[in-house]
Amino acid sequence: MQNTSPAATPFIGSNPIWHADAYTVYPDSVVQGSCIAQAVSSTELTSTYCSPPNAFLSPRISFKFSINGQDNEMPIGQDHVLVALPLPGGQTLETPVIVFGQQFLDETPIPADTYLEPNTRLKIRLDLRPLLASFREQGYYQLYTGQKLYQHDFQRVFVAGSTAPLSWDFASLSQTPELELKDPDGNGIYETTLTLHAPTATPAATRTWKHSLDVSHFPQYSSDYPLLDALYNLSLEEAKRAVEPDGTFRTGQEWAGVWTRDISYSILLAQAALQPEVAKTSLLRKVTPEGRIVQDTGTGGAYPCSTDRMIWAVAAWEVYQATGDEAWLRQVYPIGKKSIEDDVQNAYDPATGLVRGESSFLDWREQTYPAWMQPADIYQSQALGTNAVHYQANAIVAEMAALLGDTATAEQYRQQAQAIRTAINEHLWLPEQGAYGQFRYGRIYPVLSPRSEALGDALSVLFGVAPSSRATSIIARSPLMEYGVPCIYPQISGIPPYHNNAVWPFVQSFWGLAAAQVGNETAFLASIAAVARPAALFLTNKENFVASNGDFSGTQINSSNMLWSLSGTVGLVYKGLFGMRFEPTRLVFAPFVPQALRGTHRLTNFSYRGAVLDIELTGFGNQIDSITLDGQPLPEAYIPATLAGQHQLYITLVNHSPEPAYHVNQVAHHVSPPTPAPQYTAGYLSWPAVPWAATYHILRNGQVTARTTDTSFPILTPTAYTEFQIIAVDSAGFESFASEPLAVEPAPFQMSIELAATLPDLASCYPGSDGKASVEISTTINRTLTIPVTVPHDGVYALDFYYANGNGPISTSNKCAFRTLRLGQQQLGTVVLPQRGEQAWADWGYSNPVVARLPSGHLLLTLSLEEANQNMHGEVNHALLHHLRLTHLE
Question: What is the Cα–Cα distance from 726 to 867, expressed in whole angstroms?
């Protein structure tokens, strides 16, 4: 991949701006195979693009069954396998009758160069008679997890799998009717018939975008590159369409409403400059009546499992810097401050200095986390992007406080910001990779995932988390695939594209701006091309596309007219090419024009506070040769915030590319090994062989203690509480996720304290529960629990609660329950009790572990609903508790 190689057949006689094996960008067009997108003018684009069929799908089909849309048939990594070789005359293939919970493996050899035939018909048959018999005999069926599925809870059965229309997105199975199996004759054999590998391509036809909205009130951009001009104008029209009648942003064509992170990232990219009043209205829509920022999406009932809402404060600050509106500053300052105060109590880890919570924007659990991680585990994790957001939010609230004369608060938040920055560089940096890891994850003994995470990388550079040498290394070493920078790399086995195996243009734009900031010309130009290609071919700013083939149709969910994607297109002009940076008292220019885009770039009618600017930028490189305002030289490359009226700004670059001009980490599509599933028996850890694994790392309490090529490993009987995990490593050195922590013979080191039951007849109050005597906690019931505990020895303990929360599904609704755990006045930690499924009151599990040093003797712990423990629902903060578990660690 490079930007200098000519295309095989230059289009319209031009040299390419960017050339890769898969596509070429010219000044007026994009060519990808037989598909061409062309800028007829600055206000008209044509495209012959259509989604290509995938002719190279494997006939090996992996699948499993799902009761009620849950991954509950067999352990993670254990699937049914069918080899779908064609039958004569195109007959429908049939699986044998597969008994629920009994793995079927088809070991038919696959001839070389054999692929899944298009429109393969497959009848899938499932024997549920053992489950139905168990219902009749004892009223429930025990799933492999140990959970009891009661007869009245059995609703529907689905099939999930690896090949479309099959999907591993269990939460969305019900949205595809053909994935539901039914029993047509009532004999207990359920079935469905699917059409696998149904081509979606249609004959190529020329489609056209022409401007149809008046966008003359926006800044106007023109250059020597018709393609860039047309894409900018397309994005202006989509930006105007993205405003609802009530004056708020619409997230995308398919997504009505205002989402905190979507609007905030869009405001940072471009909308603070482009539509500041809409930005203000939208941001205020995401504030609770109590003055807290709304965390409106995320795993397990959103906040505090997800904590990236603080990007709101960063966006609010950007609006202030762009407008100078002091009333706005005074309005948003207490909102940001109060929200951070809550986060400090609920999510800041004093042991590491990092912030807990889901990776920013990557809020679909299966797409970026190992399948064994429960929402409580997601809360416990510490992610790169989310920590970068909290660093910047603290730094910004400190600046707000200083401007408003609150010097003590300013210093407090500067120190908090610096503590997070230090912790990121201490705990998330991988020296051997020259990059940050994705997140720390686990339970009691966390490990660092070495996967790259593109948005976190970009934010760590842009926000100044990474020292300069690290920032340069991050961009140079970030995995860059043919079509752009994937959200994560390598990809996760068995997970369809959405965040996994996907490029998101807004992430690509942030990464491109980070590349420009460190002076990496090739990475910056690659980002411009990676954003321009899909917008031109698709004739809209799509939400995402598949990283491995560049197509939008293969992702799980998508939308046109996507707010943050269109904002990225505009932002690469304002903040990339023209290098605009808003500051409290000035607008700074640090332009960067790659040599392939040399020439003249004009931006007229650009409003900055009381001024309207017409800007002309000539030359290439990232060093300014001269800059004038109304014909007079500017001593430095900025204009003051006090400037008013119409002005002309001329910037000339030195026509010299930064060195080194070419340094990117070009990589091919790669899938890491699946996560191992070990078990312990009689002194041995053992696990099924993991596909593609060349070796296995054995982790003891979060540290690699051994390596082996076998699938078993002997261990001595522990003399202290000990957890083991296995990581599979392929021949290229890429790692799987670590397996679920497996405690070996933990009984001597654990004790359970049953809570005094307030609901002895649970089944009558919670239909579908398993009848465990429990304590109910809510906003009105047992707001404070006093728990007497006898601690046998001084030491460090992990404390977690066995709980149920059936108030909503894992992926939506905002009813995560959480409480503050104290010993006297000492806060031990936050206990998070996330949703485990809609009406899933028989689905019990453990909360996050709170690790604390306890003295021996009789203690009184309190579990309280404190002011900071407010979720985003406001009224439903509710769960059932069965017992408290103490694990003696040291």
Answer: 40
Give 439's strand partners. 383
Which residues of 678-816 form beta strands (DSSP E)? 679-681, 684-686, 693-700, 703-708, 712-714, 723-730, 742-743, 750-754, 775-777, 784-791, 795-804, 807-808
Structural contact between residues 427 and 405, judged by C-beta atoms closer than 8 angstroms: no
Residue 27, CB-side half-sphere exposure with 13 Å CA sphere: 16
Instruction: From 747, 755, 749, 777, select the one nearest 883 (Cα to Cα).
Output: 755
Length of the chain, please? 890
How far separated are the first and last CA of the chain, in Å rounded? 53
201 within 8 A of 96, measured Cβ to Cβ: no
Nearest to 315 by CA among 291, 301, 335, 342: 335
Strand-pair partners of 180: 158
Which two structure tokens, joined as six digits, stand for 62? 């992996």
Choose the weakest-confidence range: 15-19, 169-173, 495-499, 650-654: 169-173
- Find the helix or strand (DSSP H, E) in which 750 lies: strand 750-754
pLDDT, position 768? 64
Under DSSP, the state recorded for 596 is G
DSSP secondary structure string for all residues of 428-484: SEETTTTEE-SEEE-SSS-EE---EEHHHHHHHHHTT-S-HHHHHHHHHHSEEBTTB
Predicted structure pTM score: 0.86
pLDDT tens-digit profile of 97-121? 999 999 999 989 888 767 788 889 9
**What letter would DSSP give residue 667?**
-
Coil/strand/helix, residue 220:
strand
φ, ψ at 167 (rounded to 5°)? -150, 150
pLDDT digits (tens, 9 = 90+) for 848-882: 999 999 999 999 999 999 999 999 999 999 999 99
- CA-nearest of 339, 334, 217 to 278 is 217
Cα-only R_g, the chain = 28
Spatial separation of the C-alpha atoms in residues 813 and 808, rounded to whole Å: 6
Greatest CA separation found in the chain? Answer: 91
Query: Taking the mean position of all CA atoms in its chain, how far away is CA 104?
Result: 33
Rounded distance, CA 776 to CA 832, Å?
15
